[in-house]
Design brief:
This protein is an alpha/beta fold. It has nine helices and 17 strands. The strands form three sheets. A nine-stranded mixed β-sheet has the order 2-1-17-16-14-3-12-13-15, covered by helices on one side. Strands 5-6-7-10-9-8 form a six-stranded antiparallel β-sheet, covered by helices on one side. The longest helix is centred in the last third of the chain and has 13 residues, at 314-326.
Length: 342
């Protein structure tokens, strides 16, 4: 399928640089069945769901995975995107042409790493020296890895350490936030509970590959980066029971959706899962695990816009995005949200 089919024009003023405050005051575009588009706010969500429906959240926690350092007189930037083991991470490296196997990169605050191996995609394996957990080292020397469409317009600051973390974040390992869940507050969860809507969590450690542009002309030629995730047995059983009771499983975010679909067989049964997934969902895909999706607005020609087009239809989503742009919705990680119910 041609990648340019998923292109659209987005004015720069529609890109959000800070989140809405309070979080659940963000706008929500309802793309519901075949009905008209609905301009709402996230706080309206309980009114759009039915008792017995379940929202599935990603409980990954973003680590300060962006590092700036020196190799001799060369400045080296590193964005960690996938854990290999306790001391090794795979990283995208800026100024990688100045790096050789065995070089030591000094990141400051007593944090350094060895460039161990360069991979075919240009990324590197970095080995972090010392006895302290790598997460502790990152808290000392790293900064939050804001997406390039935000970081390119303003510096990362201390406020981002709070803003770029969901209220469900408990499992360290992501280098990008599952941004659909950034809109949730204690008050909103209380409203959902009063409505009879249930919640479940899974873990998918979102990688920096989520920001990489699609550089090919045809989707068949695009390779997705793998990300690690897990769904335990009791969670899978409860989700299967929800669907057996003819209620809906609604993923909060494309990360939750991709892991649920990865864990589901052709018999539409969700099973326990632990490992890497590189699932790439494009129009023509048959969804097996989910009945809806809450998600932010995505980049043109991105794998995530392809995913929502697979769920709702490409023409429907092009029309929804055109409406959102015309109405001044805020796009991307800190932007507004949408509820997609096919």
């Amino acid at each position: 399928m041609r990648v340019d089919l998923f292109d659209f024009e987005l004015p720069t003023e529609n890109i959000a640089l800070r989140p809405a405050r309070p979080r659940d005051s963000a706008r929500l575009l309802g793309v519901l069945h075949d009905g008209p588009l609905r301009d709402l706010i996230v706080r309206d969500l309980p009114l759009l769901l039915n008792p017995g429906d379940v929202l599935v959240f990603n409980d990954t926690r973003v680590i300060p995975a962006q590092l700036e350092g020196q190799r001799g007189d060369a400045r080296i930037g590193a964005t960690l995107h996938k854990r290999i083991d306790l001391r090794r991470w795979q990283a995208f490296v800026r100024n990688a042409k100045r790096l050789r196997t065995g070089d030591i990169i000094e990141f400051g605050a007593g944090v350094s790493s060895v460039a161990e191996e360069r991979h075919a995609d240009g990324s590197w394996t970095l080995f972090f020296a010392g006895d302290e957990p790598v997460e502790v080292l990152l808290e000392r020397a790293g900064r939050m890895p804001l997406p390039p469409y935000i970081a390119g317009k303003r510096p990362t600051d201390d406020q981002d350490r709070t803003d770029y973390q969901t209220m469900f974040a408990t499992k360290d390992g992501a280098v990008a936030a599952p941004t659909a869940a950034l809109h949730f507050t204690t008050e909103l969860l209380e409203g959902l509970s009063a409505r009879g809507v249930k919640t479940e969590t899974l873990t998918l450690h979102v990688g920096a590959g989520t920001f990489l542009p699609v550089k090919v002309d045809d989707t068949d030629d695009h390779a997705m980066h793998a990300e690690w995730g897990t769904i335990d047995g009791p969670t899978a059983d409860r989700l299967n029971a929800v669907r057996a009771g003819r209620n809906r499983v609604i993923a909060v975010g494309t990360t939750s959706l991709r892991l649920l679909e990865s864990a589901t067989g052709e018999d539409n049964v969700i099973r326990p899962f632990e490992g890497d997934t590189s699932i790439f969902i494009t129009p023509g895909y048959t969804f097996r695990a989910i009945d809806g999706l809450m998600t932010n607005f995505h980049l043109p020609k991105s794998t995530l816009f392809m995913l929502v087009s697979a769920l709702m239809g490409r023409e429907r989503m092009q029309a929804a995005y055109a409406h959102a742009i015309a109405k001044g919705y805020r796009f991307y990680s800190y932007g507004d949200s949408s509820l997609l119910l096919p």
